[in-house]
């Protein structure tokens, strides 16, 4: 058999197939014979294929007429089926029309039947209502309260059935009066049942009130009965105040009793010591009521006990706020003597000098923490209650502190402002000539020491905000911190202004400049003071001024670290408050979160501080959104938690740099002050019989003093630079850069002052020009020793003054003039009276 499968392949290659067939022949067969056999097999296979194809084609031709007849028959059957379906559809449409009319008629009949039934029932209810109205007095007279409740319930049901019919308006008013009457009959019995713990009677009376729709009466009566013993717990504090005698409480505060005749004193029990006992008694009472109500009112105890606590806090709320206020004032003798507290200080109704102190706020936080522990116990006791009920209950527990929290920003501002105002930046008294360096050093030391003190005050404010408000007043805290940082930096700025006079540079700086005459007068007076100083005093002032740089560096680093810490704290608050902020964005219905009684613990968070914020924010959507937007800004790295303070810190650093520069350049300024008016520049050569030099070959004292000062300055900068930059290789590089930067700044200033004085010279003779050349060369050598490039103007001055007068004109016309500053060269020509025409 011949395998014909390779011929089906689209990529069939005849040569490859023949070669493969030759390789598969028997070794004993010849190639010719094998190819002949292969050809014969292929021919036989092709003949067989052709025969089969011919047979199948013939059979297909024979089947075509039959298939055509079948197709025609099927087409005729489809046409007849279509006409049959059309007739059926026509019959269905006719049947549907008649059925719809029948159904509509039946619906009208059914409506009429329902109305007739309703009218029959209404007539029955009306008849029953008339009968009930006539017999209800007999029921009340019998004293059977359950039957009376059933009667009133039936009357209300009948009134609801008859609707707003004018004939029964009097019955409706009668029902209202009867319900009030039954309610008033139940109340004494309910009070007795609640007082004597009679479970069965209380349940029956509850059923009566529920029957007539007066559940609110049950709540009010239950609250009224149990509010009296709780108020006794609260009033126990004042009873102890009246009955306490000296020596009863060892650690209590003493206060005059007010009886001027006996002059006796009463030991006052601190409210913070008494409040835990009140909370313990209140919690024990609530636990007992919770257990009893579970038996008496199993369907209502989850709302009755929280309602009792809410009404209790509302009843004692005003007194609670007053006691908190007085308790905050008792920690300070001044406010305790006046029987005033924190709210009185905020209102301004206090003598001058009494301010908010840290102890005031610490006392408030202590009381708040005590309340927080009570709130945790309440949350555990009411864990089965609906979340909305639980939230309202906890809110009422913290309600006495709300007035303090709303004013937290003002409290913190007043507190921090007083503490910052108490920081002593001028520790040394004003000293005279010879001791100003000590005054400067002492003041700078106190400025530097005050920075960490102020940062600690701000850190304490953050802790107080979290402890008292749980972070819900973070926006007010940030504004307060920003404002107080501005206040502190303003104090530093004022101290810097006063140090300018100590350093003898109060006549410099753009902010203190007046007219030119006033500047010259102040400069002359300061120059005289500086001349009277010893060299050691001058360097002590320089060292003190350089120490001010450490103040700016400390302020910048400490403020940046504090701001980073504040951002981290706010970020943690953002995470902790996310549930509260999300809950507050659910609008007034509070959506599913507030209605899910099983998720109360999760929504309130695991910490008391977070509970406080959640309670406030969930019911304050706008405040929550505002706080969330603030916390969301922390994600932006460009966000400054203290934006104004950050700008003022940079401005303070600039002011410090300006002051230090003025101090470092002051000696140069003083030495060069009268340079332009020195008579030596216009001196005339005196006739002599001997050939003597007409000028000194040495620089004059004024410029040597400046040069020695500049060369000594790096030694003064080095220790300070190392102290600012720190230690290590990087620190050494930073120290070198710091010293070089300031050295170049002073050197540039000295050269600028020198050139300014040179421009002010009016007339220069030949001896004066030669002397100026020597002085300029000396200063240029000093600048070169400090690795500072010589300014082109100063080089021009040196070249023009060192050139003889008769050669200067040619110098300006030569090619070398391209290296000169032409305006300066022309100025020198005018000084030396050389005409360039």
TrEMBL record:
Domain of life of the source: Eukaryota
Protein name per its UniProtKB record: Uncharacterized protein
Native source organism of the sequence: Melastoma candidum
